[in-house]
Amino acid sequence: MSLRSLIIVALLGGAAILPVTAGNKSGAVRYVRCQVGQKVIYGIVEGKVVREISGDLFGDWRTTNVTHDLEDARILVPSTPSKVFALAGNYRDHLGDKEPAKIPQPFIKLPSCLQRHEGNVELPGHTTDVHYEAEVVVVIGKRAKNVSEGDALKYVLGITCGNDISARKWQKADVQWWRAKASDTFGPCGPFVLSMDDYKGLNMTLRVNGEVRQKTNTSNMIHDIAQTVSFISKHCTLEPGDLIFTGTPGKTKPLKAGDVVEVEIDKVGILRNKVVKVES
């Protein structure tokens, strides 16, 4: 479509479809899932605006000429996954004296634990010692079953920031980690999904009230994204939108009501959540 045609359509109030698709994008792209008014959309982040897409981000889509100011949009969890995995012990500085596992060690978080950017992390009233865990989160882009490590990144839409909130008291006492890792609001992630060819060499930092508490680089993972996606896909079919938290670095500390936690990954953005106490 010519520039003149786009201008005419815009003046007429239409939503022109631009000739750009997922298949021909180049370089790094940031996607966002957000709510504008009563409408939930996917779009491409362009500076301080989001450009709507038409179609299915996890299938066929095209960009449109419809844009919204990001500050007017309510940023949502990046996808609506059928499954959420997380890795245990995927950074050596988190393991201490323990030997790294020879294969990825995924466990299950629940989709219901996910929390959006700027949503509150709730500390349950009936436990203590709840910690932050900064993590890279993989967003699956298409159905993956028995994929090789060499092909695994073809099935990844991108990565986002995550915080694997962990109730240490329950984690140590319970046989399973379901409530320690998957209670409501224990899976903040967002704000944007970074899509690029390679995710190595990106810095990740966690801050609590502005103080740096964790800092690492994605190249420090014991099992990288390709290995992890390939391994999980050989046992469980990954569907578009599924999420994989890829482990946390270093040491962690308890959170308290009033804390503001930020997870920042190069080129992705900053995930920000306030911590509140709830009675339960």
Quick tags:
13-stranded mixed beta sheet; disordered N terminus; five-stranded mixed beta sheet; 280 residues; Fumarylacetoacetate hydrolase, domain 2; single chain; mainly beta; 2 domains; 12% helix
Topology:
Elements: H1 3-11, E1 17-21, E2 29-36, E3 39-46, E4 49-55, E5 61-69, E6 74-75, E7 84-87, H2 92-95, E8 106-109, E9 114-115, E10 121-123, E11 130-131, E12 134-140, E13 156-163, E14 166-167, H3 168-173, H4 178-182, E15 187-195, E16 203-208, E17 211-217, H5 225-233, E18 243-245, E19 260-265, E20 269-277
General description of the model:
By secondary structure, the chain is mainly beta. It folds into two domains: 3-75, no CATH class; 84-277, Fumarylacetoacetase-like, C-terminal domain (Fumarylacetoacetate hydrolase, domain 2). It is 12% helix and 40% strand. It contains five helices and 20 strands. Strands 1, 2, 3, 4, 5, 6, 7, 8, 9, 12, 13, 15 and 18 form a 13-stranded mixed sheet that branches. A hairpin with a 3-residue loop joins strand 19 (260-265) and strand 20 (269-277). The longest helix has 9 residues, at 3-11. The N and C termini lie far apart (57 Å). The model is unreliable at 1-26 (pLDDT under 50).
